[in-house]
Write a structure and sequence with these properties.
By secondary structure, this protein is mainly alpha-helical. It has one domain. It contains three helices and no strands. 4% of the residues are buried.
Length: 113
């Protein structure tokens, strides 16, 4: 019985969060607001990860294992930055190609009543 109660209690924040939405348009607007804050944070984390690899590589002082670990971190940091920048560029290119303005609200199709 405790497992059932704890399971239901764990979903109560989800239900409370869902109660605040009046429609799909509000959901899309709030999702856009969250993503506009998260993307720069992810770029900053990828850049910090790259520089952490640089510092680790410099501090290795001739230790081949530590130097390899630093190189690996730098490579993954560069890959993360390149993937995020290419996705950002692809979205911008698609917006220009399809004449879709960035930001604003999305007008959803409605059914006639």
């Amino acid at each position: 019985m405790k497992k059932v109660i704890y399971g239901l209690m764990s979903f109560s924040p989800v239900l409370a969060f869902a109660a605040g939405f009046t429609g799909i348009e509000t959901l899309v607007i709030q999702l856009q607001g969250v993503l506009s804050r998260v993307v720069p944070l992810l770029f900053a984390l990828a850049i910090a990860y790259f520089f952490w690899g640089v510092i680790k590589f410099i501090r290795s002082a001739g230790d081949p294992k530590e130097a390899a670990a630093g190189k690996s971190i730098m490579i993954y940091g560069v890959i993360a930055i390149a993937v995020m920048a290419s996705i950002y560029g692809l979205v911008g290119w698609l917006q220009n190609t399809l004449n879709v303005a960035g930001g604003g609200t999305i007008q959803l199709a409605t059914l006639p009543q």
